[in-house]
Amino acid sequence: MSTAVISTSAAQGRFFVFEDECVADPEVCYLQPTSHSRKSKILSKVTSASRLAVRPAPETVSSGIAEIDLLTGGLPRGCLTEIFGPRSSGRTTLLLASLVAATRRGEFCALVDGSDAFDPQSAAAAGVDFDRLLWVRCGENLPQRPSVADKKKTSFESCLEQLLRATDLLLESGGFGVIVLDLCDLPPEITRRIPLTTWFRFRRAVEHTPTVLLAFERQSSAGSCSTLQMRLRAMDRSQRKEKAEDSGIPLPTHAQLLTELRITAEVVRSRIERKPVCPAEIKLAGKTAWAG
Fold first, then answer.
1. 260-270 vs 228-234, strand pairing mode
2. Quick count: other Cβ atoms within 10 Å of Cβ 212?
3. In whole angstroms, what is the distance from residue 221 CA to residue 215 CA?
4. Is the model's pLDDT at 34 over the cut of 50?
5. Percentages (nearest 5) of helix, strand, coil residues in the chain
6. How far apart are CA 75 and CA 279, in angstroms?
7. CA angle 163–164–166, rounded 5-degree value
């Protein structure tokens, strides 16, 4: 077999290899039609789409909240799940519930706290087993004074960098049933700086492992790299006020008591083959402990 280099305006720098009988002139090369037998030989090496192996649906585990499990089918192992929403939308409740469910299953968990916002007392009250939880604190040195905006922005960027490095190390080490990334208190303009290549790296690192990778944020940043994406939203204040008045508890004139929190959970993206057995949006309600 000999080779002929063809340089044209449509194919600059590309090399084409032709058999001897196809090269008539080194200056001008004419491509001969492919014979039927040659086509058959080439097609025999191509796997039919009907014979391709179907990727099995990932194993799922409970999120700790029955309604969320009914909506999503559970949290998928070996996948990136992204949960986002504004403040008071139930993010912390779902985060703690997932840790409680995992530690009760006897799994070891890791929480990468992007802004040192995790409250151990609330977690203990919820039932988290701290003997099975690794708490990685990334924001211990955040300034508390809002007047130092520039320094605070720099600190947030530093926290994000620590979070990403810690996540890489945890995924490489393995052995965790659940790894939670808490980016809720980092500004969206900071979390949006996470490149998609980083999310894709996390997704590939957790793939084919029994680990559930959860990312909690104010706004979505992982996008198409997530297997399951869920949005949480809170109800308006007037409804909460009506509920407090209906409970018969006297309200102070200068404040509003919160006795119940209603949230809406919506599946934005799901690549899990098993479809949910209920609509893609549900409503949840939780009462405060003192309100009974």
1. antiparallel
2. 29
3. 10
4. yes
5. 35, 20, 45
6. 17
7. 65
In a domain, 246, yes or no: no
* Positive or negative: CA dihedral 196, 199, 205, 207: negative
- Give CA–CA dist 107/124, Å, rounded: 17
Is the separation of the CB atoms in 223 and 199 below 8 Å? Answer: yes
Q: Using an 8 Å Cβ cutoff, are 212 and 75 in contact?
A: yes
Structure confidence by residue, pLDDT tens digits, 184-198? 999 999 999 999 999
Q: Domain range holding 71?
A: 61-234+267-278
Contact assessment for residue 176 and residue 98, using Cβ atoms and an 8 Å cutoff: no
> Same domain for 11 and 132?
no
Structure tokens at 223: 């996008």
End-to-end CA distance of the chain: 85
The predicted-structure confidence for 217-250, as pLDDT tens digits, reads as follows 999 999 889 999 999 998 755 444 544 455 565 6
Q: What sign does the CA torsion over 58, 62, 65, 70 have?
A: positive
Cα(209)–Cα(172) distance, integer angstroms: 11
Which residue in this structure is represented by tokens 């409503």?
283
Residue 91, in any domain of the structure: yes
Single pTM value for the model: 0.71
Domain count, the chain: 2
